[in-house]
Structure formats: C-alpha cells, structure tokens
Design goal:
about 600 residues, alpha/beta, 10-stranded mixed β-sheet, 9-stranded mixed β-sheet, about 25% helix, about 25% strand
Length: about 600
C-alpha cells in the first residue's frame, strides 16, 4: 500500500538517500550519540548516529561508525547524548472525538508526548454527520504534522434495528472511502452479529476493504472463543481491541489476530491480562497498544502513548517489547512497515528522543525529520478550525424537556416493581443485566437513590419531532442529582441519568440550548458544563481549556457522590448496543447477547 503520510515517497528520493549515506551529499539532520532502540532486533545500540534527508533516514552510524561524513555546513546536528532514540509512537486504535477536540488540537496535545501517528476511527462523527462529517473532520487534520491515518467507520449504526442515528454508512460509502488518500483500514467492525449472520452490508464492507488491499479492524467482545470467533476471523477481520482477560487475548492470538492491548481513560484493561501475557512467555509480535478513548484531562495531565508505555512497563513488560507494540508491530499490521515503525535506512524519520525507558518522557519529537515538539510543548499552533454550520447545529430533540417528560408510567399500584437495570463495573465497558426493585408512586416508577438505583433516559436528538425516547435504570454511579451528555456511543443521542426528574429535565434542557456536551446538575443548579457544539462531541476551544472544564465536571461528580474513574465516559457506553450485556437506546433495552429488545418490567 502506498504511504501518503510521509514528506516524500521513497521512490522519489532514494537517489538522494544513497548519496547522503555515502557522504556525497550532506544530510539535513544528524542526531548524534543516541542510545538507539532497535525494534527490529530488540536491542539498545549505544552511541548511534542517525542521518536524515528528504524526511527519511539515510544512514545509521553504529558501533565504531559515525555520521560525521553526512554533516555539511547547513546540517542541523542534535546531540542526543544520554537520550534514547525510539521510533515515533503510534496509537493503533483511537477515537479522537473522545478527547472532545478536533484532530489538529488533538495533535497539539499528543505530539509532545512522542506520538507521531494515530490510526483513528471517526465513527462518533460518522454517527452524527455521516461521511461528509468525516471528511470535514480530516480536513482539519491536514493542518498539523501528526500522521492521522483514518479507518472509516464501518458501523453506522453500530447494530441495525435497535437505535436511531443521525446518518448511515453503507458498503458503497466504504468502497468510496478506500480511494481517499488518508484511509489505511476499515474502522472497527462492531457489528460482529451481522458478520456471523451474513448480513449483506456488513459483509460487503469487509469485502470492499479487502478488495482495496486494506486490513479490517475488529471489535469482538463475545465470550465465544470457538465457532463464532473462528468465523469472525475467517471473514477477514484481523484485529481486536475488546479483550478483557488473558484467555480472550490468547484465543485471538492463536487464531492469527493482532490484539490491541487497551489502556484508555476509563477502559483500564492492561492490568487484567498483561502480567499473565508476560509470564506466559508467548510471542507478542501480534500485540499492539491502543488507548481507544481518552478524555482531555488524561492527555493534558498524564500523557498519551507514553502513559500507556509507563503502565505496561510497570506491569512487567520489557520496555523494548513495549516500544515494539507501539511502533513496528503497529506499522506492520496496517501495511505501513516499509515506511514507518523503525529507525532504519529508507524509513520516515519519525523519531522521539526519550529521557529513559521507564517514564518515556519525550525531550524532542521529529516527524519526517522536522522538529515538531520539544520538552513537552508542541512547536506548532493551529488556528481554530472553521467547522461547517451543519456540524455545529445538531441538537434536534423536537421537544422541550420538563420534569413530566421523565415520568415512567406503569399500570401498577403503589409499592414496588421489579425492573431490569444495567449494572455498571467501574473501568470496564461490560454492563451486567440485573433485576432490581424500585418504588411505584401514583402509577410512576421512581429512582431509588438510597439503594444506588438511578433512572436513565435516551432521547433521539437527530430526527426532531419524529424522534423517540426510552427509559431504564442503572446501578453503580451513586450520585445525587443528574448527569447528561450527548457523547453516548454510538448514536450519540441525548443520554440523561439521575435520581430526580427535575434535575434530569434541567440537564437535558441545558445541553439542548448549548448544542450538546456534558453537564452535571444537582438541586436545580448546573454544577459543571462542558459545551461541545461540534456534532455534540467536540469543542472549538484549546484542549487545555476543555480539560479544565472536564476537571470541573469531575469535581462536580465527586460532590454529587460518584467515586468511579471517568464516570461520563462510563456513562457514555450505556447506549453502546454492541457490547454485553444490557444497553439502553432511544428504542429501549437491548439484550446485547441475543440482540433482541427487552421490556423494562421484569417478569
């Protein structure tokens, strides 16, 4: 596959690289005396020199050899004594929208942490604004040096027939996107039931991707490790980031999948399987690292791929192996290993100079041989992006929410009723399908905050007066008041949760008025608000400003009684109808094992 993400294709500049390597032409950049992390041989090569021209590595000075012969009067020479030169870090699966900023601003946040490439699935924007929205999102990406490699959304909607989205993506759309110059793979095929059932659009999306010589990324959270998993892999899906245990990871690796080991803001999966993977001694060359979803405060306060590397090494993974998972393994999986993923002659000069292999703090970051970040700060600063008007006016509820809107009428006497509820486990995407008892007062179901049972509502925000809404219950958040958000995977409808109808109504109205986002309300007051006017998903402000607002929201959650990490992110997957066990969409409860609708009242 031709790599369109480098300064120049190798076939255009290989003659220049030949001359530089032999000293007949000076290099543009020479990095001297670095400890080179060789991800091709799993070694640390001391006192290495790296000569760069045309945005690519021309020469490595190893052992007694140096790059002095590559230095001319205009060559930029960087002394990397005591530093480690590693390939630029890559995130193998990321939804940029979860950081609540556009790609250009995302780049400004992550490049200083050593990230030079991301493989991003824009299915959040795709569910709201379709492929035109995806195109607009990636026009923003062209303004910054970060290599934003797109994997177009395969599942819009995520699962057919159970929710209402703002758009639809078809196999014809995918076929067209495979001709775009920034597309490298198909975004996660969450509709694994459709693949297993031979659903035409899902299967055809995979076919169009394979026919274009691209890989198909996956999403397989099913406990089935036999026929269903074999069939899913046989269909052409070759990677997966939805693994919760060592046994799941091992089963996928044994069937030839590439497994994306995940550590995001809320989905903290590495501790659940990485120590066992290390102890098992199995070959990890088919393992990649990914974050999947990062909140802005995580990026600003803790980092990006450097954060994941720190966690992995802290769990016992060898640091060079960890770097392989974030560099060469990733590049080779996506068919870009001939251009990216290692510091070797001919490859793109995407290089990060690290202080050590424990904290992975980046001192200097180069993309295509250009210094783009230094000592934690980006050396580029894009202006605000001019988003199309149709992407900043997407709240179409068709009603003005009041307290009465949140009444759940039932034909039952005063007392209690047995209802289905979603049981939340902090730090995981899985929800349990449980039955709880809630009060019935004057023919209306009530929340029961004393037993941590909250009411949940999902409103279609895409179709105006024709939209529908549905109710459910949830345990695990422990709040007093209400939380609401339009970041609700994957349809991104308006999701409201609370212990009283008045606060829930205020939260819903607040988001309707500001164009979407996240809000915390208690006792009739807005405690915190994160405005996300772009598709109800992204801000137009700097990532630091958004992180500060998210930090205020986090403090509000704590004030309201919530102790879980990233509750808004955990809340945001309560509508994700492709992950077990029970989810709530605007059409009602979905059993995500049978993919059938379930009633609210339990028999």
């Amino acid at each position: 596959m031709r790599n369109r993400f480098c300064k120049a294709p190798l076939w255009e500049c290989n003659d220049s690289l030949v001359r530089v390597a032999q000293g007949a032409q000076p290099a543009e950049l020479v990095i001297r005396h670095a400890n080179l992390v060789s991800v091709t041989t799993h070694e640390i090569l001391p006192d290495a020199d790296i000569a760069v021209a045309c945005g690519r590595v021309a020469y490595l000075g190893l052992g007694e050899h140096t790059a002095e012969h590559c230095i001319g009067p205009d060559t930029l020479v960087v002394d990397a004594t005591g530093l480690y030169a590693a390939p630029g870090l890559m995130d193998s699966h990321i939804h940029v929208e979860s950081a609540m900023v556009g790609v250009a601003e995302y780049a400004r946040a992550v490049v200083p942490h050593g990230t030079t490439g991301i493989f991003c699935d824009p299915h959040e924007v795709g569910n709201v604004a379709g492929m035109p929205g995806v195109r607009a999102m990636f026009e923003d990406a062209r303004r910054v040096p970060l290599k934003a490699m797109m994997t177009p959304p395969s599942c819009v909607p995520a699962v057919t027939g159970v929710e209402d989205t703002g758009a639809e993506v078809t196999a014809a759309d995918i076929a067209d996107s495979m001709t775009w110059d920034n597309v490298v793979a198909l975004g996660e095929m969450m509709n694994f039931p459709g693949i297993l059932a031979g659903e035409k659009n899902a299967v055809d999306e995979v076919r169009e991707t394979l026919a274009a010589d691209r890989v198909v990324t996956g999403h397989f959270p099913s406990p089935d490790r036999d026929r269903a998993l074999n069939a899913y892999v046989a269909a052409g899906v070759s990677s997966c980031h939805e693994s919760g245990s060592f046994d799941e990871v091992l089963a996928k690796l044994r069937l030839g999948m590439w497994v994306q080991l995940r550590q995001g803001s809320a989905w903290l999966n590495l501790p659940g399987y990485l120590p066992q993977l290390v102890e098992s001694g199995i070959d990890l060359r088919h393992c990649l690292l990914c974050s999947d979803d990062n909140h802005p405060h995580t990026l600003v306060d803790e980092g990006h791929m450097d954060r994941i590397l720190r966690t992995a090494v802290g769990l016992g993974l060898d640091p060079v192996t960890a770097l392989q998972m974030a560099t060469i393994n990733c590049a080779e999986y996506f068919g870009l290993g001939h251009d990216m993923g290692s510091i070797t002659p001919g490859k793109c000069a995407d290089i990060v100079l690290l202080e050590d292999l424990e904290d992975f703090r980046a001192r200097k970051v180069f993309i295509d041989g250009e210094l783009v970040a230094e000592d934690g700060s980006a050396l580029f600063s894009p202006d605000s992006y001019a988003w199309p008007d149709w992407m900043t006016h997407t709240m179409r509820l068709g009603l003005t929410p009041t307290a009465e809107t949140f009444h759940i009428p039932v034909d039952l006497p005063n007392g209690t009723a047995r209802v289905r509820a979603m049981g939340i486990e902090p730090g995981d995407t899985i929800t349990r399908d449980i039955v709880v008892e809630v009060p019935v007062v004057d023919g209306v179901l009530q929340a029961d905050p004393a037993h941590d049972i909250l009411k949940v509502a999902v409103f279609d925000r895409h179709h105006g007066a024709d939209g529908t809404h549905a109710f459910g219950f949830v345990t695990g958040f422990g709040i007093h008041g209400a939380l609401a958000q339009t970041v609700s995977h994957d349809a991104h409808n308006l999701l409201v949760m609370g212990d009283n109808d008045e606060d829930m109504a205020l939260a819903a109205r607040t988001l309707a008025e500001c164009g979407g986002g996240e809000v915390a309300v208690a006792d009739g007051k807005v405690l915190a608000l994160v405005e996300l006017p772009v598709c109800g998903l992204m801000s137009t402000e700097r990532v630091e400003v958004v992180a500060e607002k998210v930090g205020a929201a986090r403090r509000a959650w704590e004030q309201m009684g919530c102790t879980m990490p990233s509750p808004f992110m955990t809340m945001g997957v309560m509508s994700l109808a492709c992950v077990p066990e029970l989810r709530l969409t605007n059409r009602g409860y979905v059993n995500c094992l049978t993919f059938e609708m379930e009633p609210l009242l339990a028999e």
